[in-house]
Design a protein that fits this description.
single chain; mainly beta; Neuraminidase; 5-stranded mixed sheet; 4-stranded antiparallel sheet; 27 strands; about 40% strand
Length: about 325
């Protein structure tokens, strides 16, 4: 059955067991020095979209969508977009068209101006689940909620018709993040889909023509949780556990996976995939492994532990910098690659 609810707006004018692995993971390097900075107390935001004129759309959870101008050093609120304190995500379409997702509301913008708002039921986007991204070719990528079993379906959904296609299944392991072994996926603007596989960890690519490229195991080892690593984890968890509370020693697993629940998969403009890596005592910053479209690990970049990469432009990478794990935050622009 075809469904036509979604695409009136979205197509207009228009991204744990142990195993043997190879040695040789490249050392992480710092991002190039920033060439722009905005704000100093932005509050929570997780998504940035660069427009062709260099302005940026920033989706802030509490106060809606904002337009940032690095040249003038200021933000202004985009009228017609409210978030109600809920998480918001921006997706780039063709040209300066952008979709902002706030719960079930999908808002289409052309440049910084709201063009149309749709309130979508789950049925218009296929089965209930999580939207993982949009491309510029008319496809939406979604993982579907599962109530049983150890994997969930990964679907591509045609935005013009609402019809869906099963691509593969993603493994879902234990819920505890220290023991988590979970698979993730994202879609690039040109329609390529990257799937982070586990057991062993690797990246497989699905091309727009339906052909798979299967990557080799990534040369990134598990971390053995000795006393030093346990102390490092306890320090990270302290702000969330409250005073005097810590994880019991018996609650630590023997090893920690290099990729954990809640990681970020980021589609860079030069076609490579960035994968957020689990921090450890020897690398306390936030490291992103870089994988090319053959599945090969070709590099890594590192930011401060409290910072996150939140988006890309044509030749820029945007970082939410909080100088720690707490708000407030600022937006930094760095050259890329």
């Amino acid at each position: 059955m075809n469904r036509t609810v979604l695409v009136i707006a979205l197509t207009t004018t228009i991204v744990a067991p142990a195993y043997a692995i190879q040695a040789g993971a490249p050392d992480a390097v710092a991002l190039k020095a920033q060439n722009g900075q905005l704000g100093d107390s932005l509050g929570p935001f997780t998504s940035v979209r660069e427009l062709r004129n260099g302005l940026v759309l920033v989706a802030k959870d509490a106060t809606g969508l904002w337009l940032g101008d690095f040249g003038a050093g200021r933000f202004e609120k985009v009228s017609g977009v409210t978030t109600g304190g809920r998480s918001a995500t921006t997706y780039a379409l063709g040209g300066d068209s952008t979709v902002v997702q706030v719960s079930r509301n999908w808002i289409l913008l052309v440049g910084p101006a709201v063009s149309k708002t749709l309130s979508l039921s789950d049925s218009s986007l296929g089965p209930s689940g999580t939207v993982l991204g949009l491309d510029t070719l008319g496809t939406l990528l979604k993982s579907v909620e599962a109530t049983q079993g150890d994997s969930v379906p990964l679907l591509s959904i045609a935005r013009k018709t609402g019809t869906s296609r099963l691509l593969t299944r993603l493994y879902r392991g234990p819920a505890d993040y220290l023991r988590s072994v979970r698979e993730y996926a994202t879609i690039f603007p040109d329609g390529w889909i990257a799937v982070l596989r586990a057991q062993p960890w690797r990246v497989d690519w699905l091309q727009p023509d339906g052909k798979w490229i299967h990557g080799a195991p990534l040369p990134i080892p598990q971390t053995i949780l000795d006393a030093r690593e346990k102390a490092f984890i306890s320090q990270l968890e302290a702000p969330f556990r409250g005073s005097g509370s810590s994880r019991p020693d018996s609650d630590f697993p023997r090893v920690r996976e290099p990729f954990e629940t809640g990681l970020a998969l980021l589609a860079a403009p030069n076609g490579v995939l960035l994968i957020e890596r689990t921090p450890h005592a020897d690398e306390p910053g936030r490291t992103y492994e870089i994988v090319d479209r053959t599945g090969a690990l070709v590099g890594a970049v590192e930011v401060n532990g409290g910072d996150h990469i939140v988006g890309f432009g044509r030749s820029s990478v945007y970082v939410r910098s909080s100088r720690g794990d707490r708000w407030p935050a600022r937006l930094e622009r760095h050259p890329w690659p």
